[in-house]
Write a structure and sequence with these properties.
The structure holds 2 protein chains of 2 kinds. By secondary structure, chain A is of the alpha/beta class. Chain A has helices at residues 2-19, 37-47, 59-68, 86-91, 143-146, 164-177, 185-194, 203-210, 228-233, 268-278, 281-284, 287-291, 319-337; strands at residues 24-29, 50-55, 77-82, 95-96, 117-129, 155-158, 198-200, 221-225, 245-247, 253-262, 294-295. In chain A, α6 packs across α7 (185-194). By secondary structure, chain B is an all-alpha fold. In chain B, α1 crosses α15 (323-354), α1 (3-35) crosses α17 (375-385) and α15 packs antiparallel against α20 (437-466). The chains are: A alpha/beta, B mainly alpha.
Chain lengths: 339, 530
């Protein structure tokens, strides 16, 4: 009798975790997360799980909010933690370990932790307005060019203390010039300052307010994404036949975005199902058109207008190194560039 | 007013603020301050941060003074003259107030930025911040001061004039003293708004200029330095409370009882030379108010190169943001926020107007405080505090509640000066004629309350439609509002997205102006006494 009761209890626990979970999954994301209605509808139809998306603020905001609500999360999954914020999130132990059965489909370079699942990536790169350059003054091709007096007053970057592409570009300069030696990253920034670099608060202000390639701004060189030139003309009516801007390959920094299941989530089983869905081809092929970034699965097809994946992988920094040094670097950057 | 009536009136506002403001804000401040004991010393010895505090304070004072000075002529014209298109002009004056800072930021850059149309580059200077603050807040003065000015008894001015006073002297000796409470009310709101200015400073000020609000954002949302953020938020609150207490004292000392007249009796057609003056004032203010929106309209029509309405067509077919649902969300939240703000603000205003003394002052200050508190602090506070007894953190009701926190001060500020000005004698007369307190309230106070309610409702609705700063930090289910949708478009590259951001901004302006005019039309006809 006792044994039967234990068996029943065990069975109840086993099925309970699967059956009694409400058919809902709640995804917390930053404001630039997007997915097509069709993809969500397909998931809901297939699994019977209702998807609720909760959005608010930029990546830093949602990650910090998740840290503050550790153990009592607002949703089941957090999407949008990137490699510059990952270490902070892992230290705060906000994620449950989960490795999707689709992980083998993803190149190793994206797998930074068993607690999070990589979903997409994008390269923060220097963009330039093609019309501003010609045979006499060719478009810049290296980070050093940007400090060359010939390109004086042409560059606008985002404030790394506020903007995530701004931070990525700063990290790219640290990777490239290092903290020690004859010419450090801070020397480089001193030269950029000498060369009249403009600092905009965020990506939108830099790109739409100052960049001449996307409006009537005054600066032909901007920190943006590798995918921006293709996106710039996408859907334009009347169509724009040729790309008017281009991305420079030198000095790019790769941002990888992850999703993770939050500790103490109400619907952990559904969350795992949804993470698997985010790695399915259906979702992965939805990513470029919705978020203008590359899907992590190499077998996901890109739309024709989107262009090819970058052939090379820019050198990066370990997330723990970023977390340990972020405040100091930002302080040093502010001292050199702003004071 | 009896003690019991006072307690009844205070109950809803006090409970609302305790639950949705005091508790969340205390929670987040406590989280920050218990994490590190030395945060005060760290912030107060950082000369950079002290510079930020000082800048925040003086730019708010200067912005407020400039806004009042520049708004007064238009306020006068819109309040005292009757001319075709007056209600349209009044609605248009309110439009800047609801435009999201992200959008206005780029419009200002187009006018006075590095390659600005006006030929001067003010980007990164304090001038462009002051200009933007004036632009945003003109509506506050026009509406709150105009709300009283339009009802001043013209006989007072006529009497002064017939006794030989010059127009200027009549203004300074008769009109201005009567307007002082409303001016103080409007100034207090503009001060709080500019003190906590975020997007404007961020976008237009460049990286070398920061307000306390920007610094709190940087510490909270980027660096996760909650201790320093908490200290800064406390400093900001101390400044706000000091300003509000000073305001309340001033308000009590300078309130003059008077007989208010219906607007249709006070407004007249401009005559002779007045016409030129009226036209000049409207034209001058119009240039300031319509400049940046003009840029938005132009850009929405030319985003793809040639002139056309492609951006608007794209809004209809786009998959990125469902525009119909964004408009629906915005209108729904605005309605909810208006109802809450009136429910909280009107009883509070009646109480503040009727009772004087320290308690009333603190009550008034508490009501205003959300307007002067960092939006990041409130947003993060909601997240850690509103999980029990019912988890509201990711519920749709959180958005109208947050909007109502910002909108309630407007309801209170628009109402108190008018309510205070009602002659106590009217109430006494009613009582002497045998009316019960309830009947006195119904026949004397209620018509006035419903009149100020429409002004408050228009404001609350507009505040909610344009709210961005607090909304952005909330965990939001069920799709974006219009300002958030604009922000999402502006966060993506491409002529298509940019065009849609501009087109949606224009739609927001049109919806706002329409809503304000509709609310004003719906105004209940007041009885002859008022």
């Amino acid at each position: 009798m006792k044994r039967l009761m234990i068996a029943v209890a065990a069975l109840a626990m086993l099925t309970g975790s699967c059956v009694s979970e409400e058919p809902v999954v709640r995804l917390v994301a930053h404001d630039f997360f997007a997915v097509s209605d069709e993809a969500i509808a397909a998931f809901e139809e297939e699994t019977g799980i209702d998807v609720r998306i909760v959005q608010g603020g930029d990546a830093g905001t949602v990650v910090n909010q998740a840290i503050l609500t550790q153990g009592n999360p607002v949703g089941d999954i957090l999407f949008g933690v990137d490699n510059t914020l990952l270490s902070r999130a892992l230290d705060a132990e906000i994620f449950e370990r989960y490795e999707s059965f689709l992980i083998p489909e993803i190149p190793d370079q994206f797998e930074l932790s068993p607690f999070v699942t990589p979903i997409d990536y994008g390269d923060v790169c220097i963009n330039y307005d093609k019309s501003a350059f010609d045979a006499d003054l060719p478009a810049p091709s290296t980070l050093e060019d940007l400090a060359d007096p010939r390109y004086r007053g042409m560059l606008v970057v985002e404030d790394p203390t506020i903007s995530s592409p701004g931070l990525a570009f700063m990290l790219a300069t640290i990777v490239r010039f290092g903290e020690t030696g004859d010419y450090t990253w801070l020397d480089y920034w001193a030269d950029l300052r000498e060369n009249d670099v403009a600092i905009a608060a965020d990506w939108g202000t830099a790109y739409y307010g100052r960049f001449s390639g996307a409006g009537d701004g005054d600066r032909p060189i901007v920190v943006s994404y590798a995918t921006s030139p293709a996106a710039e003309v996408f859907g334009a009516e009347p169509p724009i036949p040729e790309l008017s801007t281009a991305a420079m390959r030198d000095g790019c920094y790769r941002q990888i975005e992850f999703a993770g299941i939050l500790v103490n989530a109400d619907h952990p089983q559904n969350a795992r199902t949804f993470i698997d869905f985010m790695l399915s081809l259906e979702f992965q092929e939805d990513v470029p058109g919705q978020m203008f970034v590359y899907p992590v699965r190499p077998d996901a097809e890109l739309p024709a207008w989107f262009g090819e994946r970058p052939a090379d992988t820019p050198a990066g920094l370990d997330p723990t190194v970023i977390e340990e040094n972020r405040e100091r670097w930002l302080g040093e950057w502010s001292d050199v560039v702003l004071r | 007013m009896t003690r019991r009536a006072a307690i009844t009136l205070a109950a809803v506002p006090v409970l609302f603020l305790l639950a949705f403001f005091v508790w969340p804000v205390l929670s987040i401040l406590a989280t920050g301050l218990t994490e590190e004991g030395g945060a005060f010393a760290r912030v107060l010895t950082d000369s950079g941060l002290l510079g930020v505090v000082w800048f925040t304070l003086w730019q708010a004072v200067v912005s407020t003074v400039l806004t009042v000075l520049l708004a007064m002529p238009a306020t006068w014209v819109l309040a005292r003259f009757d001319f075709p298109g007056r209600s349209l002009a009044r609605a248009i004056a309110t439009v800047p107030f609801v435009l999201p800072t992200v959008v206005v930021g780029t419009a200002f850059l187009a006018l006075v930025g590095p390659s600005g149309l006006l030929g001067v580059d003010l980007h990164g200077t304090v001038w462009v911040i002051l200009a933007a603050h004036v632009f945003f807040n003109i509506a506050v003065v026009v509406r709150i001061v105009g709300g009283v000015w339009g009802h001043l008894d013209p006989q007072l001015e006529d009497a002064a004039r017939s006794l030989g006073a010059s127009p200027w002297k009549t203004f300074t000796r008769v009109t201005l003293p009567l307007l002082r409470p409303a001016l103080a009310a409007a100034s207090s709101i503009v001060f709080l708004f500019t003190l906590t200015s975020f997007g404007t400073v961020l976008i237009l000020g460049g990286p070398r200029i920061a307000t306390v609000e920007v610094e709190i954002y940087r510490r909270t949302a980027q660096l996760l330095d909650l201790p320093a953020a908490a200290v800064l938020a406390l400093l900001q609150m101390v400044g706000v409370v000091a300003a509000l207490i000073a305001y309340s004292r001033y308000q009590e000392r300078h309130t003059v009882e008077q007989t208010l007249r219906p607007a249709r009796e006070t407004a007249r057609r401009p005559q002779g030379r007045e016409r030129t003056l009226v036209a000049a004032i409207l034209g001058g203010t119009g240039l300031l108010v319509l400049g940046p929106p003009g840029v938005l309209v132009w850009r929405s029509l030319t985003a793809s190169g040639g002139l056309g309405i492609q951006a608007y067509q794209a809004l209809g077919s786009d998959t990125l943001v469902d525009v119909g649902s964004a408009v629906g969300n915005s209108l729904g939240y605005a309605l909810g926020a208006t109802v809450i703000a009136l429910g909280v603000g009107l009883p509070a205003a009646v109480l503040i107007a009727a009772r004087r003394g320290r308690l009333s002052r603190w009550f008034d200050t508490l009501l205003m405080l959300p307007l002067g508190t960092s939006a990041v602090t409130v947003g993060f506070g909601f997240l850690i505090a509103l999980d029990a007894p019912v988890d509201l953190r990711a519920s749709v009701v959180i958005i109208p509640i947050a909007h109502a926190l910002v909108a309630t001060p407007f309801v209170v500020r628009a109402s108190v000066p008018v309510l205070r000005a009602v002659r106590e004698r009217l109430r006494e007369a009613a009582a002497m004629l045998g009316a019960s307190p309830a009947r006195t309230f119904r026949t004397v106070d209620l018509p006035i309350v419903s009149r100020v309610a429409t002004v408050g409702a228009a404001f609350a609705f507009a505040v909610s439609l344009g709210e961005f700063g607090a909304t952005i930090f909330l965990a939001r289910p069920g799709g974006p509002t219009i300002p958030i949708a604009i922000y999402r478009f502006l966060g993506r590259p491409g002529v298509l997205n940019f065009g849609q951001a501009m087109a949606l901004s224009v739609i927001l302006m049109v919806i706002t102006a329409t809503a304000i005019m509709a609310v004003e039309r719906a105004r209940l006809p007041g009885p002859g006494a008022f």
